[in-house]
């Protein structure tokens, strides 16, 4: 993966979005990148969205609706994802949607071998009988 850098302001806070090294090399052709980023820039590490549990969601009230903010972690700016637990109402809504989809699938008559499967509340999915 290509090295990324992010501009930082006078307080050391990130500004805008990360840039690839190749772009910075065009902006700062005389800078020796082996000694680190140019002044006013910091290294940035992209972090993939985490895997969510069955009753977790990304908090879209954070990061301009993305659920991710850029934060300094161990001297490097990184994506920091904000994951929250679903409310009781959201859990019930999700469970009911899964159960409804399952019932619709069984109603087609094409999946009779799945009639004995049971809903597992912990995983919000159906499992084969033991």
Question: What shape does the CA trace take?
Answer: elongated
The value of Rg in angstroms is 23 Å
Helix content: 10-25%
Termini separation comes to: 44 Å
Mean of the pLDDT scores? 95
**Spatial order of the strands in the main sheet?**
2-1-3-6-5
Helix and strand composition category: alpha+beta
Oligomer: single chain
The ordered H/E elements are EEHEEEEEHEE
Outline the low-pLDDT stretches.
none
* Overall number of domains: 2
DSSP helix count? Answer: 2
How would you characterize this protein structure?
This protein has 130 residues and is α+β, with helices and mostly antiparallel strands. The protein has two domains: 4-85, no CATH class; 88-127, no CATH class. Helix content is 21%, strand content 32%. The chain is built from two helices and nine strands; from the N terminus they run ββαβββββαββ. It has helices spanning 21-27, 88-107; strands at residues 4-8, 14-20, 41-45, 56-58, 68-73, 76-81, 83-85, 118-120, 125-127. It has a five-stranded mixed sheet. A two-stranded antiparallel sheet has the order 4-7. The protein is elongated. The mean pLDDT is 95.
């Amino acid at each position: 993966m290509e090295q990324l850098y992010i501009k930082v302001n006078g307080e050391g806070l990130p500004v805008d979005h990360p840039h690839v090294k190749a772009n910075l090399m065009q902006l700062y052709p005389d800078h020796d990148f082996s000694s680190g980023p140019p002044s006013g820039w910091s290294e940035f590490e992209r972090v993939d969205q985490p895997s969510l549990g069955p009753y977790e969601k990304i908090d879209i009230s954070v990061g301009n609706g993305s659920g991710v903010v850029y934060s300094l972690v161990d001297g490097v700016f990184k994506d920091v994802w904000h994951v929250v637990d679903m409310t009781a109402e959201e859990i019930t809504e999700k469970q009911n949607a899964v159960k409804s989809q399952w019932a619709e699938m069984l109603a087609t008559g094409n999946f009779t071998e799945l009639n004995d499967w049971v809903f597992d509340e912990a995983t919000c999915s159906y499992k084969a009988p033991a």
